[in-house]
Specification:
Strand order of the largest sheet: 7-11-12-13-9
Largest sheet: 5 strands, mixed
Strand content: 15-25%
Helix content: 25-40%
Number of domains: 2
Number of helices: 14
Low-confidence stretches: 431-437, 439-443
Structural class: alpha+beta
Length: about 500
């Protein structure tokens, strides 16, 4: 325990501490701006100072709101641990907590503790002195209830009241997602991923299911088009898009890509590897769960920042968790609007998001590119190409599964100009009739991705393996005129079987 340096109850208003003896930057700046010019009682330097009593009151406010004294004796189930010698009081000594919070040396923090014990110890009520020299404190967890209420109100609003992007929705999402650029994980990694065409993680995998031989052949004939995002008229609602809004759903690896499309046994999966050909800006949802906020406990905004970080971790889990097909329509509405917000309202806007794959139990990563960043560079054979596909041959016991594609492209023909409103112009490129013209293919949109044609492969689904958690089912039956007993819940399966 540190020795008292100068403190005496009668001197709390005369002992002064300068801003240089306080290493918490926020508190030191406050003392520098608001303090009184005087000689510091601890370093003997002249500068902006604050009284010991005033500093003690500020520290008391912080400890009362953001920390709590830990029990000095075991409580509840802790008695069992204490009997076996495994219980240890949680928290840190109060002097160390004061020193850490305000950035003080040991002697000053001990004087603060003694001052707090005299002014806030409450000895008259017979209780323990919260600032006794053997007291220990622990930091309270962040209270993100306000952010959870905001999110819940937002979800209820878009599900049951208004599904358009209203001012209420924008204000709610501004509160949650504002200033994402400053957020970093405890390892100092930004929640924003910027990927360029030269980066190692520039690859994205995407696949489609071919349910028939004709559908499989169509995908193989035009892989860039068919493996790219669906055209607007065919785009179904998903986790990050409303129906009719075309986005690019991909994965960071092939296994996750295949797992996400949920192909049935007997189907053929056509998969390929895309790569970014321009820089993209993505929000890493997983990193949101690891946001670490640095700051001063004396900063009024620090608690809010911690609460927001805690909520973003909760939100990251909600966005990534699986949704049952019967619930998708309503459950996807909030994340669809979040995606629209990130794509159009965030400053600067995002090109997409990365989040954990629920289909791989969180081991893989999904990558979604929003509509404006979902364009795939066209490098398929030109319209009018004749295809001859070799889909494999041989008996069942010696079948050669190799697929070979032979293309015969038409000779280059210069299109004849046509007259449009009295002006001769070149006709537009022909559009494939089975897909229709899609905004993602319009020539004025800069492509984000290109398909590596050599990476295209066909995976025949022969079986599916599930990863399951076994859960014991227990049934207790009593007659209507009997009082139900409190069952002893067994800890393992064998014990449960012994009950029957």
């Amino acid at each position: 325990m540190h020795e008292l340096a100068y403190y005496h109850p009668d001197d709390a208003d005369t002992i002064r501490i300068c801003s240089n003896c306080i290493t918490d930057s926020f508190l030191s700046q406050k003392v520098r701006a608001e303090g009184e010019e005087a000689t510091c009682s601890y370093c003997d330097e002249t500068g902006s100072t604050i009284t010991l009593a005033d500093l003690a009151d500020r520290i008391h406010d912080v400890l009362e709101k953001q920390f709590y004294p830990t029990p000095s004796e075991p409580e509840g189930l802790e008695y069992t641990l204490a009997k076996e010698g495994h219980w240890e009081r949680s928290g840190d000594p109060i002097v160390d907590v004061i020193a850490e919070v305000a950035g003080l040396d040991g002697n000053i923090s001990e004087d603060i503790r003694a001052c707090l014990s005299d002014s806030h110890g409450n000895p008259y009520d017979g209780g323990e002195d919260p600032y006794a020299d053997d007291a220990q404190y622990a930091e309270q967890g962040p209270d993100d209830l306000n952010f959870r209420d905001t999110w819940e109100s937002f979800c209820q609003h878009v599900r049951w009241r208004s599904r358009f992007f209203s001012q209420y929705v924008e204000v709610s999402l501004d509160e949650i997602f504002g200033d994402l650029t400053s957020l970093k994980t405890f390892r100092g990694i930004s929640v924003i991923r910027e990927i360029s065409p030269s980066d190692d993680d520039r690859f994205v995998f995407r696949a489609r299911v071919g349910f028939s031989q004709a559908e499989l052949q169509n995908i193989l004939e035009y892989p860039s088009r068919e493996l790219g995002p669906a055209p607007a008229r065919l785009a179904k609602a998903g986790r990050m898009n409303a129906a009719g809004i075309s986005v690019f759903y991909g994965a960071a690896d092939m296994d996750t890509c295949v797992a996400e499309i949920r192909a049935p046994v007997g189907a053929a999966v056509v998969a390929g590897r895309f790569e970014f050909i321009r820089p993209v800006r993505l929000l890493d949802i997983d990193a949101l769960a690891q946001v670490y906020v640095k700051g001063s406990h004396f900063d009024p905004g620090f608690s809010t920042q911690r609460a927001r970080a805690a909520f973003l971790g909760h939100l990251a889990q909600m966005i990534s968790r699986p949704v049952m097909p019967s619930d998708e329509t309503l459950q996807y509405l909030p994340t669809q609007i979040v995606a629209e917000y990130l794509a159009t309202k965030a400053k600067p806007p995002f090109d997409g998001v990365i989040f954990r794959s629920s289909q791989t139990n969180g081991e893989g990563r999904n990558i979604v590119l929003f509509n404006h960043a979902s364009t795939v560079q066209r490098d398929d054979a030109p319209p009018g190409t004749n295809f001859d596909l070799w889909m494999g041959a041989g008996p069942d016991d010696d079948f050669d599964p190799t697929i070979m594609i032979f293309e015969k492209i038409p000779a280059a023909v210069q299109p004849k100009p046509i007259e449009l409103f009295g002006v001769m112009v070149s006709p537009p490129d022909p559009v494939s009739p089975d897909r229709g013209q899609d905004a993602a293919w319009l020539p004025n949109r800069e492509p984000t991705l290109c398909l590596d044609g050599k990476s295209v492969q066909v995976l025949q689904v022969n079986g599916i393996r599930y990863s399951c958690q076994e859960r014991t089912v227990m049934r207790f039956r009593t007659k209507a005129d009997e009082e139900p007993s409190n069952p002893v819940v067994p800890r393992d399966k064998s014990a449960a079987e012994d009950l029957f």
